[in-house]
Specification:
Number of domains of chain B: 1
Bound molecules: zinc ion
Structural class of chain B: alpha/beta
Shape of chain A: globular
Largest interface: A-B, 31 and 34 residues
Largest sheet of chain A: 5 strands, antiparallel
Oligomer: heterodimer
Order of helices and strands of chain B: EHEHEHEHHHEEEHEHEHHHHEE
Order of helices and strands of chain A: HEEEEEEEE
Strand content of chain A: 35-45%
Strand order of the largest sheet of chain B: 3-2-4-7-1-8-11-10-9
Number of helices of chain B: 12
Shape of chain B: globular
CATH superfamily of chain B: Thiolase/Chalcone synthase
């Protein structure tokens, strides 16, 4: 059994999840079986807002053949205080600190969380 | 148990560094190992310990058969690939100091260009999961499928904060290729480049890494023999003392995907490794005559220089620009050309170069080298003229 199974099950339901410690309440990502802060084995899957800011980015292309579509890989600082790796869509210019929001897309036969520039309505 | 500094590197050996060795990885390991044992003035039967990397494909028992080693008393393997590339010396020295083994052979050999290339996306990472759905992962699924991309995402916040440009990286690359150009062992022997050549090379990962910022993919083997300082006095070569050796692994560090600390600028493992090396040896950055810095990609040289206190944070680009890392500068870096210029034997070729500098037999010899730092951030050594 994989420690990250819950994460992908959430993604398949259109939810972005992170482990929340059942004892000290801290959030953690990437998934781990034990809380790094208090060593508790109790945890629940907490739904995240999906809002965050760009912390870093690169453009991913195949190293030795032309790509059909290069992808922008981003580090997203989520507002709950954890960081995730994802892709940023629909941005021609990428600013560190730019607000982004999660969307779920079918990519290569599987659903993945992706991010896009946050719409004006969001916080 | 004696201290680590009672141990020494007494033999070095290697094959040629190429793009197509035309022979098996085991043959490369055997050739390099035999050369190291003979260089030391030992016989294969004197070897009673072996260390390599977890990733090495060469089985200790098959290498024993090749070399005619009758019995091993001790083996060990080190994790984290190149990140652990100084650690085999720490393991071997610990075994010798404790008495677990007398003469330890360290080897690393691969066909990393003509066989399984590190620089190409590995199909294994797109394996099919349960129910026929593609396996998803927290990193590979988003396009982080080569070391260049994986590390570039780690370098980007550093380069952004300190305004490090592609040209700044190019100035390191020009020096490494200048060193390689006068090192006959180097793949890029007699092939120096200009900053313009660097700037004209294609992007591998925009906007950080151009082709010439990336280490080579190489075929080859390198081996070392570690023994005690006491036995070394009767051996063929001038011994090179292991003055300090450490690994440095930090809470919330991740191998390759090192994205999860609050502030990604800085290199906490390299900093911790440096502090431990200074403490063990009683030396400091000002005492280092040469630095061998593992550079899978050029930006890590800048981060490593800063973490070891050779210059202030954010100032490595200016340190390099000042000429400090050239052969006649205050801290010659990678006089063999490093992994960009000489070859990529997973970091082991930087250790053999350190030994040559201390023996006084390097192609690009730094005058009166007495202390050489060898580092890959997560593991480091200070080697010393005995
Ligand atoms: Zn906890």
């Amino acid at each position: 059994m994989s420690d990250e199974a819950f994460f992908w099950e959430g993604v398949d339901r259109g939810q972005l999840l992170a482990q929340k410690c059942g004892d000290c309440g801290s959030l953690r990502h990437p998934p781990l079986p034990m809380c790094p802060a208090c060593q508790s084995l109790n945890w629940t899957a907490q739904a995240l807002s999906g809002h965050g800011r760009v912390h870093g980015w690169i453009v991913s292309k195949h190293p030795s053949r032309p790509d059909e579509s290069p992808r922008t890989v981003v580090l997203v600082d989520l507002e709950e205080g954890i960081r995730m790796v994802s892709n940023l869509e629909g941005a021609s210019h990428i600013e560190i600190g730019a607000p982004v929001e999660v969307v779920f897309r079918e990519i290569g036969g599987a659903t993945l969380p992706q991010f896009r520039p946050a719409t004006g309505a969001s916080r | 148990m004696k201290p680590l500094k009672s141990t020494a590197i007494v033999g070095i050996g290697q094959t040629e560094f190429s793009k197509q060795s035309g022979r098996s990885e085991l043959q490369l390991a055997a050739e390099a190992s035999l050369a190291a044992i003979r260089d030391a003035g030992l016989k294969p039967s004197d070897i009673d310990g072996m260390v390599t990397y977890v990733q090495d494909s060469n089985d200790e028992l098959q290498l024993m058969r090749c070399l005619g080693i009758e019995q091993l008393r001790w083996t060990g393997r080190t994790p984290f690939g190149g990140g652990g590339s100084s650690a085999p010396v720490q393991l071997a020295a610990s075994a010798v100091a404790s008495g677990a083994a007398r003469n330890v052979l360290i080897y690393r050999a691969f066909n990393e260009r003509s066989g399984q290339r590190f620089g190409q996306p590995a199909p294994i990472h797109y394996g099919v999961g349960g129910g026929g759905a593609p396996a998803r992962s927290l990193h590979f699924s988003y396009g982080l499928d080569t070391p260049a991309k994986i590390y570039a995402l780690w370098y980007q916040p550093y380069m952004h904060r300190y305004g490090v440009t592609s040209e700044d990286l190019g100035r390191y690359v020009v020096v490494s290729r200048k060193h390689a150009a006068t090192n006959p062992n180097a793949w890029f022997y007699d092939k120096p480049i200009t900053l313009e050549d660097h700037q004209a090379s294609r992007w591998i990962v925009e906007p950080m890494l151009r082709l010439l910022d990336c280490c080579q993919e190489s075929d080859g083997g390198v081996a070392l023999v570690v023994s005690s300082m006491e036995r070394a006095r009767d051996l063929r070569q001038k011994p090179v003392r292991v003055a300090a050796a450490t690994q440095a692994h930090r809470m919330d560090g991740h191998i390759m995907f090192d994205y999860y600390r609050p502030d990604l600028v800085g290199y906490p493992e390299a900093y911790a490794s440096a502090q431990e090396l200074w403490t063990q040896s009683g030396l400091g950055p000002q005492d280092m005559d040469v630095a061998m810095i593992y550079e899978n990609f050029s930006p890590v040289v800048l981060m490593t220089l800063e973490a070891h206190g050779f210059c202030k944070e954010g100032e490595a680009k200016d340190f390099i620009k000042s000429g400090a890392i050239e052969l006649t500068g205050q801290l010659p870096v990678n006089p063999n050309g490093g992994l960009l210029g000489e070859g990529y034997i997973h970091g082991m070729n930087n250790i053999t170069e350190a030994v040559r500098q201390l023996r006084g037999t390097a192609a690009n010899q730094v005058a009166d080298a007495e202390n050489v730092l060898v580092t890959v951030g997560r593991s480091g050594l200070i080697l010393q003229k005995a």
